Amino acid sequence: MAVKVKLGGNGAASRVRGAARHPIVRWLGFGVLACVLIGAAVFGYFYLKYQKIVEARLAAGPIFANVSQIYAAPREVRVGQRLSVNLIAQSLRSSGYNSNPQLGSYTVSGGSITIKPGPESYYASDGATITIGHSGSADSSGTVVTSIAAGNGAPLAAYDLEPQLITSLSEGKGRAKRRIVTYKEIPAQLVQAVTSIEDRRFFEHHGVNYVRMFECAVHDVVTGKRECGGSTLTQQLAKNFFLTPDKTLSRKLAELMITYQLEARFSKQEIFAMYANEINLVHRGSYDIDGVAETSQILFGKDLQQLDLAQNATIAALFRNPSYYSPYFHKTRTVERRNLVLDAMVDTGDITQAQADKAKAEPLELAKASVDAGEAPYFVDMVHDQLAQRIGDEELNHDSLRIYTSLDPDLQRAATEAVEAGMVNVDALIRKLHRKGDTKVTYPQIALVALNPHTGQVLALVGGRSYGVSQLNHAMAERPTGSIFKPIVYASAYNTSLDGTNLYGEGVFTALTKLNDDPQDFVQDGKDYQPGNFERGEYPGMVPAVEAIAHSLNIATINLAQQVGYDKVAALAREMGIAQARGTPSVAIGTYSATPIDMAGVYTTFANSGVHLKPWMLASVRNSNGDIVADFTPEAKQVLDPKVAYLTQSLLENVMTFGTGAAARAHGFSAPAAGKTGTSHDVWFAGYTSNLLCVVWIGNDDYTDISKGLTHSVQGADTAAPIWAEFMNRAIKLPEYSDVKSFSAPDGVQVIPVDRNTWLPADSTCTYNLYIAFLDGTVPNATCSHMGSEGQPNFFQRLFGGGNPNPPANPQQPPPPGTPEPPKKNIFQRLFGGGNKQEQQQGNQPQQ
What gap in Å lies between CA 87 and CA 770, rounded to an integer? Predict the structure, then answer.
């Protein structure tokens, strides 16, 4: 008998097929399919749309806005210079040697360091081996450069190290600093710190963490706040590069599309490096500090490879919210966040608990250098402006240029620190002298410019108290020059001496020519002009020129300018860089304006054998391949005879010895130097040694008199001179500026001792404390002990000051500042001769 069996499976299948034929089900299926197709089409549309946006962005040029880099001047190493292997190696590391083989490399072996520049080096030339040994000096435990050998073994007197990076220029008006690094140059520990706290699955996901994104979406809906951070590092990179930070649905969609593009185009390592280079982590002054490499330098003064665990965690701590966790303003928050990063690294197994505990115990110590010291912002602004004028903004912003400048980073730091320390004292003086009843204290601004006096190279520049507070560069502000102009008058007078011109009917002009400082009316264009001296009633009558400039006597100096010719004085001033100078009586006392940089250039003329050097900052511009885009030649012009320059310089040395410039000596600067104070509307000090020139200006931003509202006038000797001394004291501690030498007189000039009591050449029996330069043939015949006649001193001359009428042989060099004066002879020594041997040596031996 046949048996019929029902198979449930077939029945179920039949029912499914039946249901599938149902109209509602079919429409649902079509709807789902349509949604998938539409979704795919929409996705494809937006994917292609943002693909084009990404391609256009990448094709436009370098990803980062900072494309042109500014470098400092190369550091010169000289045989005999006090230096160590460690300092040379540190300088090379800061320049990128070893970490970037394309720039160069070095190796240390005992007391020697061998340097090999790479193909991208500024020099791209042969290297050298520098050998360091002990100085051999009984009073020094330091080391010196004993020899320098070129790559072929040839001896060298000096060798220039690779220039250090100062900063990178930014596109647009923003100011940012960034140092680009590759993934391999980022410490593994920093990568671990960032991913552990920001995106633990970064190396596993494909750009989007969907679970986390869904959790954040729910959180935002529930709380009504858009504050949950569900973005991966790739999403953050997409947002920062291409989008605005606004949290909108359309922006989020665009972020996802760009994220997919980035993940498809780049490896995880490349994406991490881009993000680590792009992110803004710190704000200093007016600068945004972008990227981990620059942040490492700013926060800790170290290369990335030198960071320890705690420092790596500190940088990672800033990724979430740089402002909120700023180590400059919220140190406690920074430490708490750093410790949270360390805990996260323990959770991911990147470090042990013991390592975390040790790092947590480490205090947060930041680099002490100020933003103005490390980044020279006023200097960088000037470089940017000059480049924009010479090669154009477009090329500057898009050609990855390497810009080599004149700046010395160590000297820039010394300048900034000297200004910061000195202005504390200036402010205290202003408060002390502030007149009661005036409600507001006006604190002045400052500028400091330091040059190499023999090249015109701007080595350091401070344009104000703080760049973060004011970006106005006072080094470029035109101000009345005051008494630092006066040496031009005396140089003009010495010019007449070369011509044999008889001034005042008393022969050619010398340092001992008597000038009239009595009150007088210098009529100008039919109008009265009756200037006074700084101290009211300071009219000593006839004074020698050396004393007139030493004490900055206005009337005597105008009187001299009148004899020379105001037009001649003004013409010389214009040749020396003071373009506004005109031939009026007031030109002699600095009523015409010039910038501090201009005045630094003026003083190169005295320091550089009469050659005026226009201060310069730009040396060379190269492209990324090292090819020269532009080289810049300094402007130099002989405007004074070398003899006239030295004679004027001799006067300025005596300003430092017994005049207003002695204030610098009082603040501990004892090396041979020449200088001049300036006190009028503003206050100045300009001075130099054999290897460094510095001008300091202090004045009010609103152009009011700096002494307005004060009980007493502020002087350059009280304000600018101490800051100059502070800077110079710091400078001579640096190897490059430590070997200060005495000034050497040129042929045709002799330097002799002069007795200040009689203003006559001194002999062995006279008390003198000055060395003064004279043109050959212009030294007075008389001496301080034998005035006006030949032969031996008589009884009364012996009693009141007698001696040999012939001055000692030309010593050529003045004594070092601080040399004690010879002791005065008592009446018996004057009458019968004698005196100790030491005294005779002091009176007769030239100083070296």
Answer: 41
Residues 140, 39, single domain; the answer is no
Please report whether residue 170 resides in a domain. no
Rg of the chain in Å (alpha carbons): 37
Do 582 and 512 contact (CB within 8 A), yes or no? no
Q: What is the mean predicted confidence (pLDDT) over 288-303?
A: 87
Distance between CA atoms of 672 and 666, rounded to whole angstroms?
14
DSSP secondary-structure letter at 443? -
Q: Is residue 55 part of a domain?
A: yes
Residue 383 lies in a domain: no
Task: Work out the number of other CB atoms within 10 angstroms of the CB of residue 522.
Answer: 18
Most confident of 215-224, 537-546, 740-749: 740-749
- H helix intervals, 542-683: 545-550, 554-564, 566-575, 596-607, 642-658, 662-666
Query: What is the CATH classification number for the domain harbouring 451?
Result: 3.40.710.10
Q: Which domain holds residue 184?
A: 175-368
| 374 in any annotated domain | no
Burial 63-98 (b: 16+ CB within 10 A, else e): ebbbbbbbbbbbbebbbebbbbbeebbebbbbbbbb
Q: How many CB atoms lie within 10 A of CB 608?
A: 23
* Residues 558 and 621 reside in one and the same domain: no
Q: Return the CATH number at 322.
A: 1.10.3810.10
* Other CB atoms within 10 Å distance of the CB of residue 584: 19
Tokens of 370: 């100020």
Number of domains in the chain: 6
Residues written for the chain: 848
Query: 368-392 in b/e burial notation, b at 16+ Cβ within 10 A?
Result: ebbbbbbbbbbbbbbbbebbeeebe
Residue range 542-562, pLDDT digits in tens: 999 999 999 999 999 999 999
Same domain, 270 and 317: yes
pLDDT tens per residue, range 405-463: 999 999 999 999 999 999 999 999 999 988 887 778 889 999 999 999 999 999 999 99
Asked if residue 501 lies in contact with residue 494, where contact means CB atoms within 8 angstroms, the answer is no
Kindly state whether residues 80 and 95 are assigned to the same domain.
yes
CA distance to 387, 406, 451, 613, per residue, from 631 (Å): 12, 13, 20, 17
Same domain assignment for residues 473 and 484: no
Residue 653: both structure tokens together: 């040395």
Residue type, 170: S
Q: Check: CB of residue 661 under 8 Å from CB of residue 717.
A: yes
